[in-house]
């Protein structure tokens, strides 16, 4: 039987891979999300490309479901929370998160997180410019090249995807969790993002994501 979620045990922690493209770690009551890219639609509209705003509302709906289902103590955004320049969607996001006053929201800055420091100071987020260590986890935006023994790097940036080919040569691309020794690369949470197809080795594990479940593809 394939479960709606999949689990990875690392040291004392259980990393639960959710079909909502997030990781839940019950032992520390925390949710991890990468690459939301909120505000990207408005960024494109400013450049004259008519992207509809409801695409971000769908992201908020999924985030709302996660927060109300798991009631975490902490949420960690692993970079690229907001897409580049400031626009009114920043206020929309902060207003939404202020509806959860009992949750601590944390941001490890990514390459698209370029808002002025004063903007972050007035936000709902605790902001970290460098990789953050929690228990056995090292949180970063870009995958780290060197990881100490006994630690696992949770990161994003790549927007990992996998291409599956059927017997009749039909194919489908899926977002995925990409797990390799001491590192878990999370899928992009935001719907308005692309995919980078990965080439896993024999030591890697890929977990594809559908609307219904998380599927182990390679082991």
Identify the notable features of this structure and list them briefly:
single chain, about 220 residues, alpha/beta, Purple Acid Phosphatase, chain A, domain 2, 9-stranded mixed sheet, 7-stranded mixed sheet, about 15% helix
Topology:
Layout: E1 6-10, E2 13-18, E3 22-25, E4 30-33, H1 40-46, H2 54-70, E5 74-77, H3 89-97, E6 104-108, H4 117-121, E7 125-128, E8 132-134, E9 137-139, E10 152-155, E11 160-165, E12 171-180, E13 183-185, E14 196-197, E15 205-209, E16 214-218
Parallel strand pairs: 4-5, 5-6, 6-7, 9-10, 10-13, 11-14
Antiparallel strand pairs: 1-2, 2-3, 3-4, 8-9, 11-12, 12-13, 12-15, 15-16
Give a written overview of the molecule:
- The chain has helices at 40-46, 54-70, 89-97, 117-121; strands at 6-10, 13-18, 22-25, 30-33, 74-77, 104-108, 125-128, 132-134, 137-139, 152-155, 160-165, 171-180, 183-185, 196-197, 205-209, 214-218.
- It is an alpha/beta fold and 219 residues long.
- The protein has one domain: Purple Acid Phosphatase, chain A, domain 2, CATH 3.60.21.
- The mean pLDDT is 89.
